[in-house]
User: Which sequence fits this backbone?
């Protein structure tokens, strides 16, 4: 069985379904409010686990009821929480999310314990990183820990993925530690400074990918919502169509994509197939309200792809 290491965030999500997204100073009606386990790292770990891989999660929660809840939920999804530290100094990360009838969302995020991950935690997991088939991390944790994890995986020859969300400035040396970077179109705009619409779309994708490649990243996969995904490694480039579904909530769709993409890379599948699996995971996640509860398992993903004449 292939093994993944996920270094990342884990949150307690409070999700309100609203008639429309509020503007500054506005109160809007909420039809329901639910509590879910979320966080980009945690969501990605659950997606990879539900695809049938061994997953060890490295992260941190607070010593509070929310921390106990999110840790228990990770375990229930088959994720190894041996690398999940419980901190007395920080509260568990929490996100407040509004979702409208079209599935669009806006959120406020308090990182809490996610920004206090120590080098010691990563050092204690060094043996697991060395023996992994894929390493994935994101920008919802403190950058020094993220860089340390990427460096440990790179030194061990383990393929690395950075999901650069949220889009925050990165130290230049970090790019050289990344085998695959997976920004969405908004994040690509922020990093590259090349606005959508400033170039023909095909040229915008090429120039955006080139910006990352010029800084040492080996390959770029830009996720484009219902326009699919674009991949370039400087030699090969592919446009992979999205799977259109009736979206209910896109909260964890990007995380599901990254989990599916990581699964494909770990199994050394052709890159287009890796993206198709990611697109399927993301599409199905968008059909259910919430974060981790919206993530689908390997049989569901296989069935979805098989209906579209794609076999994994």
Assistant:
């Amino acid at each position: 069985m292939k093994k993944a290491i996920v270094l990342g965030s884990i949150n307690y999500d409070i999700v309100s379904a609203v008639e429309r997204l509020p503007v500054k100073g506005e109160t809007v009606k909420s039809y329901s409010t639910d509590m879910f386990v979320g966080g980009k790292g945690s969501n990605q770990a659950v997606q990879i686990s539900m695809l049938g891989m061994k997953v060890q999660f490295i992260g941190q929660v607070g010593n509070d009821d929310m921390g106990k809840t999110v840790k228990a939920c990770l375990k229930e999804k088959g994720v190894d929480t041996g690398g999940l530290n419980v901190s007395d100094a920080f509260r568990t990360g929490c996100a407040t999310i509004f979702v409208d009838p079209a599935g669009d969302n806006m959120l406020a995020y308090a990182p809490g314990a996610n920004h206090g991950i120590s080098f010691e935690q990563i050092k204690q997991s060094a043996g697991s990183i060395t023996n992994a088939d894929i390493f994935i991390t994101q920008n919802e944790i403190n950058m020094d820990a993220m860089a340390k994890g990427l460096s440990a995986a790179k030194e061990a020859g383990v393929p690395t993925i950075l999901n650069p969300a949220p889009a925050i400035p990165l130290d230049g040396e970090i790019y050289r530690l990344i085998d695959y970077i997976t920004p969405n179109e908004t994040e690509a705009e922020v990093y590259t400074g090349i606005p959508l619409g400033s170039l023909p779309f095909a040229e915008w994708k090429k120039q955006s990918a080139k910006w990352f490649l010029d800084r040492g990243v080996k390959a770029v996969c830009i996720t484009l919502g219902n326009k699919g995904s674009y991949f370039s490694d400087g030699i090969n480039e592919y446009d992979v169509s999205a799977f259109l579904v009736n979206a209910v909530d896109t909260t964890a769709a990007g995380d599901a994509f990254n989990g599916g993409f990581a699964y494909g890379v770990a199994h050394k599948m052709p890159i287009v197939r890796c993206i198709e699996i990611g697109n399927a995971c993301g599409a199905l996640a968008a059909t259910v309200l919430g974060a981790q509860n919206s993530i689908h398992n390997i049989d569901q993903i296989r069935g979805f792809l098989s209906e579209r004449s794609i076999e994994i």
